[in-house]
């Protein structure tokens, strides 16, 4: 086996080892986040898990990314934040065609 092939083999082994290490760290962090949420947001976590197609990871993501849903005053704001309720804005008539849609606007 040539020196360059051995070097590539060692590099690949190193990359695989690092990926496994990162995956283990991700799992540990996920477990810690879930413990914190079960302690502080148990009711919300349980409710979110009753929604069809919302599993453990989706519920965790929703709670973490929205500060336990406290960052929003209404469901409309929440769905707009995630781009699920786009708004159309226009002022008068336009000679340039269709009005633009904003998927991030919160009203």
Let me know the largest β-sheet. 2 strands, antiparallel
Helix content: 55-70%
Shape field: flat
What percent strand? 5-15%
Q: Strand order across the biggest sheet?
A: 1-2
Radius of gyration: 23 Å
Task: Write down the overall mean pLDDT.
Answer: 82
β-strand number: 2
Q: Output the structural class.
A: mainly alpha
Which quaternary structure do these chains form?
single chain
Order of helices and strands: HHHHEE
Question: In terms of topology, how is this protein built?
Answer:
Layout: H1 3-40, H2 42-49, H3 56-65, H4 75-81, E1 87-89, E2 100-102
Antiparallel strand pairs: 1-2
Helix pairs in contact: 2-3
Mind explaining what this structure looks like?
The structure is a single chain. With about 110 residues, the chain is mainly alpha-helical. About 60% of the residues lie in helices and about 5% in strands. The chain has 4 helices and 2 strands; from the N terminus they run ααααββ. Strands 1-2 form a two-stranded antiparallel ribbon. Helix 2 packs across helix 3. The longest helix is centred in the N-terminal third of the chain and has 38 residues, at about 5-40. The termini are far apart.
Notable characteristics:
107 residues; mainly alpha; two-stranded antiparallel sheet; 4 helices; flat
Task: Give a quick precis of the structure.
The chain contains four helices and two strands, in the order ααααββ. The protein has helices at 3-40, 42-49, 56-65, 75-81, and strands spanning 87-89, 100-102.
């Amino acid at each position: 086996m040539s020196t360059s092939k051995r070097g590539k083999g060692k590099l690949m082994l190193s990359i695989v080892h690092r990926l496994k290490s990162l995956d283990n760290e991700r799992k540990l962090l996920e477990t810690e986040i879930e413990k914190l949420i079960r302690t502080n947001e148990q009711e919300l976590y349980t409710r979110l898990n009753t929604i069809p197609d919302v599993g453990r990871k989706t519920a965790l993501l929703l709670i973490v990314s929205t500060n336990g849903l406290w960052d929003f005053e209404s469901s409309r704001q929440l769905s707009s934040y995630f781009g699920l309720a786009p708004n159309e804005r226009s002022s008068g008539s336009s000679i340039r065609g269709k009005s633009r849609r904003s998927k991030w606007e919160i009203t």
